[in-house]
Amino acid sequence: MTTCADSVDRTSLVKIGLVNPKSPTNVGGVMRAAGCYQANEILYTGKRYALAAKHRGEQYNTDTKRAGQHIPLTATDDLLSARTDGVKLVCVDLVEGAIPLPEFVHPDKAIYVFGPEDGTIDQALIDAADAVVYVPTIGCMNLASSVNVLLYDRLAKTNMQIADDALIRQSRDNNNRVRVKQK
Predict the structure, then answer these.
(1) In angstroms, rounded to a whole number, what is the distance separating the alpha carbons of residues 2 and 14?
(2) Nearest to 94 by CA among 139, 153, 34
(3) Most confident listed range (6-10, 71-75, 92-96)
(4) Is the dihedral of CA 151, 157, 160, 161 positive or negative?
(5) Predicted pLDDT at 118
């Protein structure tokens, strides 16, 4: 029986880069997604998040699994500096010429960079990217939703076999004891 902890691929690396995120709610949702899909680190640029987080506590309402206690959330001036040897830079945004996510092959080691909800990723960062992908939706999703979809797509395209009842028991909320009726 495989558990989530047993199935962590030690050869992979997943970092999430956020360009000037606007709110603690969004960053908290990203932190929760990072915990669910076992990302290694969240980096962010800009001052809006830090300023908003200082005055409001919404992040703690959306990061209900407290991923922030074991996944670093780090401010940085430059997301390009987070790309070390062997780590691919993948920008995720609605940018003309980008690859639709269903067609994208994820690298083993990546930093996925997401633009702010009220803006986009700078052209210089797009130009430096190893790949630019987008989630094909009608309209744009919010930041945390986009991160969830990308991380799920990465998981779904791997060979990791983590789908079993042990994972369900480990992952569900305490108030959930529902089972599928055996026929």
Answers:
(1) 21
(2) 139
(3) 92-96
(4) positive
(5) 87
Query: Which token pair is 180?
Result: 């599928």
The full set of domains in the chain, from first to last, is: 13-160 (3.40.1280.10)
The total number of residues written for the chain in this structure:
183
Q: Write the CB contacts of 147 (distance below 8 Å, at least 6 apart in sequence).
A: 16, 29, 30, 33, 34, 112, 114
Matching residue, tokens 């989630």: 135
- Residue with the bigger pLDDT between 102 and 28: it is 102
Q: Model-level pTM?
A: 0.82
Is the Cβ–Cβ distance between 155 and 34 less than 8 Å? no
| pLDDT score of 123 more than 90 | yes
**Segment of 17-31, 101-115, 169-183 carrying the highest mean pLDDT:** 101-115
Question: Amino acid identity, residue 181?
Answer: K
* Distance (Å) of CA 163 to CA 51, 102, 159, 176: 39, 21, 11, 18
Task: Report the 10 Å Cβ neighbour count for 70.
Answer: 9
CA 29 from centroid of its chain's CA atoms: 9
> Would you say residue 163 has pLDDT above 70?
no
d(CA 48, CA 20): 6
182, with CB counted inside 10 A (0-12, 13-18, 19+), is: exposed
